[in-house]
Amino acid sequence: MRAAVLHAAKDIRIEQHPVEPLAAGQVRVQFRAGGICGSDIHYYSQGRNGDFVVVEPLVLGHEIAGDVVEVGSAATGARVGDRVALYPARTCGTCSYCREGRDNLCPETFFMGSASKRPHMQGGFQELLTVNADQCYAVPADLEHVYAAFAEPLAVCLHAINRAGDLKGRSVLVTGVGPIGLILMMAARWSGAGTIVVTDLVDEALAAARRLGADEAIRVGDADRLTAVSQGLGGFDVVLEASGSPAAVDTAMEHVRRGGIILQVGGLPGGTVPIPAFRIMAKELDVRGSMRFTRAAFETSVRLITTGEIDVRPLLTDQQPLDNVAAAIELASDRRRAIKVMVTG
Ligand SMILES: [Zn+2]
Ligand SMILES: [Zn+2]
User: Fold this and answer.
1) Domain residues for 173?
2) What percent of the chain has pLDDT over 70?
3) Strand, coil or helix: 241
4) CB 22 within 8 A of CB 329
5) Which of the ligands is closest to the CA of residue 151?
């Protein structure tokens, strides 16, 4: 079977890999759709994602939907023919984090398409995937795979929203409206947020945010407008930082209200980054991180996509076959032309 393997920055090769027999509890899933994520773009363009460096061949992809084609012995809950969204993590299930429902922090996590550990954990951009049965979440047969694959990025956003606490009536600033920023905005709206304002550098992204329900979309650099809006609100109750840019952290700390909450969702550059940290004390800020998502958030995500309560369809701008994954990643990194690009098989 074919697999798209990253060997180094800008070097993805389509290779033939053997199909191994299934172990007990495992399921074989035929790849049908995989979203290209910011982390895939980082790995492809720079050979690293923050502090995670690609040092051996890595199959990218963790936003995956497919069809169950083979079920191993003792694999319960999945049936041949199921259309599934894949929960991309395997956790130990027994550590203190797993037991407290913070399984996204499990130190034993295996996460598809990540170089955070050695050996690297291989991802989903391959024709046939071997997963545990409990990673398969069946979706209705009339939900297209390309939409089912949004379960992963929506779960990222639902987890971040959970970390921010009750958003009902709260004013929210989203810094950076790539796919995650846009979905954060939609998730914040779904959870009852009040005024939602977004910022970005790219006009096309701002236009998409307006179409998808932002109350105001402000270009980075229009500091007067952002200041006027933020002062009118008495500062934002919550800032969802989705750009991964240190400058946006500066913006967040300036425009969050005293006692407000900043959620770091975007991946900042690796190493030490200067931020206006004095404000953490002076404004008594809650600065929180959001790392991937819990299984519970993924389950909610699958449900919201299935029911259409959160409509992800406008986010899909392009589809490319698996063999074109490099071109698909290049396209996904052009934010003037693309929001979410899916690889299909
Ligand atoms: Zn992702
Ligand atoms: Zn654990």
Assistant:
1) 157-289
2) 100
3) strand
4) no
5) 1
pLDDT digits (tens, 9 = 90+) for 231-265: 999 999 999 999 999 999 999 999 999 999 999 99
Cα of 309 to ligand 1 centre, how many Å? 20
Q: How confident is the model at residue 50 (pLDDT cuts 50, 70, 90)?
A: confident
Place of tokens 């492809």: 44
Contact 32, 42 (CB under 8 A): no
Cα→Cα distances 6→47, 64, 326, Å: 9, 17, 9
Q: Are residues 109 and 171 in the same domain?
A: no
| Number of domains present in the structure of the chain | 2
Q: Which phi and psi angles does 219 have, rounded to 5°? A: -70, 135
* 91 and 215 inside one domain: no
CATH of the domain at 81: 3.90.180.10
Q: Which pair of tokens denotes residue 95?
A: 């550590």
Same domain, 235 and 142: no
Pairing of strands 48-49, 286-289: unpaired
Domain contains 241: yes
Whole-number Å distance, alpha carbon 62 to ligand 1 midpoint, is: 6
Q: Which residues of 295-306 are buried (b: 16+ CB within 10 A; e: fewer)?
A: bebbebbbebbb
- Summarize pLDDT for 170-191 with one digit per residue, the tens: 999 999 999 999 999 999 999 9
C-alpha 37 – ligand 1 centre gap (Å) = 4
Q: Which ligand is nearest to the CA of 104?
A: 2
- The H or E element that residue 262 is part of is strand 256-264
Burial class (CB in 10 A: 0-12, 13-18, 19+), 56: exposed
Specify whether 183 is located in the same domain as 75: no
Report the DSSP pairing between strands 286-289 and 2-8.
Answer: unpaired
Record the pTM: 0.96
Nearest 5°: CA angle at 105, between 104 and 108?
Answer: 100
